[in-house]
Amino acid sequence: MACMNLVALSLLAVFNAEQASRILESLERNLLTPIPLCFVLGIICTRIHGGIKIPKELYYSIAIFLLMSIGFMGGHELAHEYEAHGLSTIWKPALATLFLGCLTPISSYLVLRYVGGLSIADSAGIAAHYGSTSAVTYAVANSFVEQTQHPANSFLPTLVTILECPGIAIALVIGAALSARERAAKAAASGRPAKESKLGEALYEVITGQSIMLMAGLLAIGFVSTMFMDPKGFQPFYEFFQSKGMLFRGVLCIFLLEMGLVAGEKLGDLVKVGPFLVAFGILMPLAHGFLAAYLGHLAGLNLGGCTVFAAIVSSASYIAAPPAVRLTLPEANPTLSITAALAITFPFNIAFGIPIYYEMAKWVGAQ
Amino acid sequence: MQLYPLKLVTVVGESVIMEDIAEEGVRLGATGYTMTEVNGHGSRSARNVASTTGARTMKVEFVVPGDVAVAILTHISHQYFDDYAVIAWLSDVQVVRGQQYVK
Predict the structure, then answer these.
(1) Which of A50, A117, A163, B81 lies 20 to 30 Å from B94, alpha-carbon distance?
(2) Which domain holds residue B86?
(3) Positions of chain A with pLDDT lower than 70, given as ranges
């Protein structure tokens, strides 16, 4: 309750009373639903050393199902969109996505390096996480807008796929280029040859990693099968994968429970990362989210679409980015990036961010 | 039964580099390796960054002649010790069919 009052006060400082009360209403509508509540249960359980344990294999299986489902439904809806409007409605949002995918790692890097004073490797490492996206945040945001009866444009999963790669690539290239000089100097000082760079290998692993292969692959499969398959034969696949279905929503709850358990563990690291990174993990997504809602609106996305678009642009990757950063920028401290992405931005987006993006989307005029 | 004196190089570290280490060991003269997932805690457990990121701890073992063992340990210590959570050690072993482990 104290937390809600704090949110209410800070909202009043930025918005007028009517807007603030609308945002609070959206917050309540979002928070008191099973998906965020499962996340909260996970956090509480870890903090009180409770006994919930989600088997690793189940977690990985659910991740595969969610990625396949997002891709498949994206491909299916994309086929309908393509049949109805051709490429005319899709190219502008795709371009906006590409633009934001390139902008967010750079803006994150600049803020971390020059406002936060972090090292080159740490700044680039965290920027790689924030440049990419979190498919689960997409799934939760999509469930939220479906609950508010403003479903997002059908091609949003395509945008998630587009957003996955460029952010990580740009941040890693910045980090690798700028820290190469430091590394060469260190190697010369120690008299040993410089270490091999693993940038190429890391980028290859991001592009061919599970997230992209499953989402892009199933997107193609969903698209082709919708175009060429008999609708009756297609129906069982649709029912299995559909994001409004009970299977998707149910496993999302289990997934969020595990995320809560992990985030609960990482909460202890908040002290280590310091107040700057906590503020960064909240304010940067809000800034990126607002920009995304605005550009999404300009590109023709509807209200639900702008909300989900803002959520995916503002979210930080915690599956594809960490190993890539670890390989390319080994001197970056993984505790900083993982804590920021998983223990700050992810919970913030799930609980507060998504309803705020919804109000931002309304505010910029999306319908 | 004839036993051959060889060296066992054991490397334990974060999963992100272990496949590379295994391949590099083969490049440096090992004829093969065994990799297993393990659990544990060490002075640099920073890599234990939660199961959601896919980070795990792996162990790679090579049975090799002494010179190859030294080459592998030197390479690992130079390439990985500064930045990654990884440890490596050497043991003497007596191996059946020892000729299989010499290139």
Answers:
(1) B81
(2) 4-96
(3) 1-16, 191-195
| A8 in a structural domain | no
Q: What is the domain range of residue A334?
A: 56-189+197-363
Question: For the purposes of burial, counting CB atoms within 10 Å of the CB of A293, is it exposed (0-12), middle (13-18) or buried (19 or more)?
Answer: buried
ipTM over 0.90: no
Residue A180 covered by a domain = yes
For chain A, give the mean pLDDT. Answer: 86
Q: Which of residues 267-326 of A touch B (CB under 8 A)?
A: 318-319, 322-323, 326
Quote the number of domains for chain A: 1
Of A201, A331, A342, the CB nearest to B83: A331
Tokens standing for A123?
């700044």
The pLDDT tens digits for A24-63 are 877 777 788 888 899 999 999 988 988 888 888 888 899 8
Helix, strand and coil content of chain A, in percent to the nearest 5, comes to: 80, 0, 20
Q: Give A-chain residues touching B52 at CB under 8 angstroms.
A: 59, 258-259, 262, 318-319, 342
Q: Give the integer Cα–Cα distance in Å for A303 and A305.
A: 5
Which residue type, as a one-letter code, is found at position A285? P
Q: How many domains does chain B have?
A: 1
pTM above 0.95, yes or no: no
Write the CATH number for B40.
3.30.70.120
